[in-house]
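Hi Q.,

Before the meeting this afternoon, I wanted you to have the flavin mononucleotide prediction in hand. No need to reply - just skim if you have a minute. The sequence and ligand are here:
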Amino acid sequence: MSALICLAYFTGAGHTARLAAAIAEGITDGQARLIDIRTMSDTDWASLDAAEAILFGAPTYKGSTAAQSDLFLEDAAERWVTQDWQNNLAGGFTIGAYGLGDKLSALTRVAIYAAQMGMIWVGQSEIGAQVDESKPGINRDGGWLGLMATSSREKSLLIDPPDVETARRFGARVEEVALRWAKGR
Ligand SMILES: Cc1cc2nc3c(=O)[nH]c(=O)nc-3n(C[C@H](O)[C@H](O)[C@H](O)COP(=O)(O)O)c2cc1C
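Predicted structure with the ligand bound:
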């Protein structure tokens, strides 16, 4: 049993792409496919249509998803009429320069999009060190609607190790849900 999980993202300066790669590292049994939405091919669209789960990724720009990400979402919205993605899984990930940074608005935007597309939303489940001392740095932004990260000031990293590990765990969670979902098909 396998599950295809597509990570469809826009990235301006590489941070969201790095976050997508970290999520994919957590997907070990299923199949992760990274899709840069600026260069959509027929194969990319076919993968999205075949996927058990689609994770929508965008940096937070001015308190929402980046505009180029919205163009992609609107292109894909032609599947709303045909309900092609209905009952498939969805999740979201975003990164901003600030811990808060109004990133919740970006995740809310994609969660509502997924709901309109008839998809089943999978959120974040890590409770982090505030509650569990054995999880230092995990989900340090304290977001549960989806995956949040804060860009690193160290530009050779783009994302700090705690956020990389949080992203891996988010990937593993989505994979676990997707494998259960695939079993029931
Ligand atoms: C036009 C613009 C608007 C931004 N607005 C926000 C914002 O509202 N909140 C925030 O935390 N960071 C904001 N940032 C910072 C980016 O979210 C951050 O640098 C992120 O890591 C960029 O990811 P990317 O390299 O994938 O584009 C903004 C950056 C740009 C260029």
